[in-house]
Amino acid sequence: MPDLLRTILSAALVLGVLVFVHELGHYLAARWRGVHVEVFSIGFGKPLLRWRDRVGTEWRVCALPIGGYVKPHGFEGPDEASLEIRAAWLPGRTFHDKPVLSRAIVIAAGPVFNFLLAILLFAAVFAISGRPADQADIAALPPVVGDVLPGGPAAKAGLVAGDRITSVDGAVIANFGNLQRLVAVSPGRTVELQVSRGDARRDLTATLGSVERGDERVGQLGIVAQPPPPRRVGPLEALVFATRYTWMVMQGWVSGLWQMLTGNVPMSQFGGTLRIAQMSGKFAADGATSLVSFMAVLSINLGMVNLLPIPVLDGGRLVFYAIEALRGRPVSRGVQEIGFRAGFAVIATVFLFATLNDLTQFGLFVWLRHVVG
């Protein structure tokens, strides 16, 4: 029961913070561009708490904390609003009357705030616990094997953790960066390795693997460096590194999505809300630093998902606004309606698929087969 309670509370905290920050981006951008915000809701369903601030926005905390929304004043266009709604519009403060740039800023601000939150969370973790090693740090390490990937070229050649690679085909290896460069330019080649293992010297032969990186193939030895411990940094360096780290995670997200769509990564890895809740509980058990780091990564995921060019998501609306900016007039209401319906169907299908993946991972269907059998 304590584990279940921790999972529920940590998931509510993580999702609640991420949704609040996302919607706060929309809210603040709307206020900046002169759009009145009618409702700011965290969650859906029956409001548990509600109050109205001095500018007339109604704030809600609802029974289902998964998700939330901001309702800008006049979000509907004149062709879809009733006479009663149009009569209540505040001149100059409706969303639909604003220039396309202002509307795009309001919509884009949600994902942008998720990325900013990730940077701040990572910066806090790095300032307190030290920043992890980056590629430059790893390249400067001594060429000592930290781990050997099972079944890889290094494992087949007989390399073990702790080995120091002193030369490749007679070329002296000064650091891990030298080793990476020599291996990268030799895909598929058989190379001679000179290795120091304790006080002994060994000569090994390895046939390098080959992997795609961008438009080229690079060699792979199948070893991992032993990264140095986190390095203490000041607040400014932590913020700079957090920005770089956030960008790296964003690039990894795009690459991971592409790998999944092309079948290089099994779709079973695709998880949803239930898996997020489970992982929140696990990271919470590991401590505040782990939970904050997980929240930062999840914030990036939320921002990236919302930027997908699918109608009903922020990215889909931004596509419509880009077309409007190029054509000089909005996309027709009929086309938008078709897009929103198709987008809703896609999102519903993805949600269902992710939920089934989560339940499969949890072993529900194995348990049901056992019960029925």
TrEMBL record:
Gene3D superfamilies for the chain: 2.30.42.10
Signal peptide region: none
Membrane topology: Multi-pass membrane protein
Residues annotated as transmembrane: 7-29, 104-128, 283-302
EC nos: 3.4.24.-
InterPro entries: PDZ, PDZ_6, PDZ_sf, Pept_M50_Zn, Peptidase_M50
Alphabetized Pfam families for the sequence: PDZ_6, Peptidase_M50
Domain PDZ: 144-175
Cofactor(s) essential for the protein: Zn(2+)
Keyword Membrane set for record: yes
Keyword terms: Hydrolase, Membrane, Metal-binding, Metalloprotease, Protease, Transmembrane, Transmembrane helix, Zinc
UniProt xrefs under NCBIfam families: RIP metalloprotease RseP
Protein name, entry field: Zinc metalloprotease
